[in-house]
Amino acid sequence: MKKPLTHITIVGFVMFALLFGSTSWVQFVTADSLNNNQLNNRRILDQLARDRGPILVDGTPIAYSEPVDDKYKFQRKYGSEGLDPRAYAAITGYYSVVSGASGMERASGEYLSGDSDALFYDKVGSLFTGEQPRGAAVELTVDPKVQKAAWDGLGDQNGAAVAIEPKTGKILAMASTPGWDPNALASHDSEKARSAFDTLESAEGKPAYNRAIGGNLYPPGSTFKVLVAAAALESGDYTPDSRLNGPASLDLPQTTSTIGNSHPGACRNGGKPSLAQSLAESCNTSFASLGMDLGEDAIREQAEKFGFGQDLEVPLKVTPSSFPDDLNPPQLAQSSLGQFEVRSTPMQMAMMTAGIANGGKMMQPQLVDRVLNANTLEPISETRPKEKSRPISGDTADELTSMMEGVVTDGTASVAKMGDTKVAAKTGTAQHASGAAPHAWFISFAPADDPKIAVAVVVENGGNAGNEAYGATVAGPIAKNMMEAVVEE
Description:
Number of strands: 19
Strand order of the largest sheet: 3-2-1-6-14-15
Distance between the termini: 94 Å
Radius of gyration: 27 Å
Oligomer: single chain
Structural class: alpha+beta
Largest sheet: 6 strands, mixed
């Protein structure tokens, strides 16, 4: 009898120890991860009952909470007079009772909800008042005039546009179309909120993608030639005046295929254009030949210096752009034109453009300018400009700037001319699928001699122009309007 009782006692102690250990593990070790899990609706419900802080653009709320008479106490709303919520949805994201948070609502969630340690004294004060602490206000770097120019320019076309202040890395615009209205997802009616989420996820054109920083990415087309030109100049073997091989048609090694130009015939100087002339004319054959001469390693190294393949948060997570591996000569030739399997976000191309504009110093892109105490409006934190890398030398940046000015004054980007203001730019028309209209690209910065804004625009499948699209005619006017919103203030 004594032996069975001993066994039962031991089993009881073991079960008690396991139970105690598992509950302790949940309460103390995994508590934070469980609380912060986006699928944890209890956390969302708790936070919906708080006065969540606003997201501000130039001092105006584009996301804010209003008191309501229901169990959640506060209703999240998006947009303000003159600030279309659809134009900012790719930035703000949503805050929903059924699907959690996305965009800046998620990335700055601790500040907006009041959970951040930076709000410690407010939380202590709430212990005495019995009130939930107010969330902090998150002020974005976005310039509403530039954002509107991007949004209006893209219109009913699918695409994206990004603008960066070269000297600071501040993101002045981040637009993605088609847009969508976050207000429907913020409904306190669970069925309506769930239906809105399902509609967004299944909508034609995939508006839930923030095409500026993610989605399926794009071949950058001829805008990538700027990077190849940078690799050539950085090698020390080329100058803007170096002569390249630019025939009407370039035979590709190891294959019967050829590469031709976008116009009939050879490039300038009887098929012997300079590097600067090749960029101005966007000569395919000369850049394909140059890419094969430089080699895969040199171009990949230059791409990585500009940020290809690197993780980035602004604080929204940016999908890394990519340059393919193990290329044979024909693939390298096509990759040198921003084709084959080269893929990029508009954010990456804007960063590259801003780095050139800033004398070879690429600043850390940042979407948050300041975090403010919602009660006192005193700054809790302020974003300081931070150098991310130096992908090219100052001399190379100066040479590229001059070459990109030539693309505007004497090349394919004349659409970007802005009176007496010097503009540097590059066009791109990217083939991406058999039978599909090309993507239209445009990168630029202005003023070229004192840059205040760097821009990257892509319009999918040629936008309204379809197969007749070119980067200059479709994406160029959008980029120009974005630059004018800053330069002509």
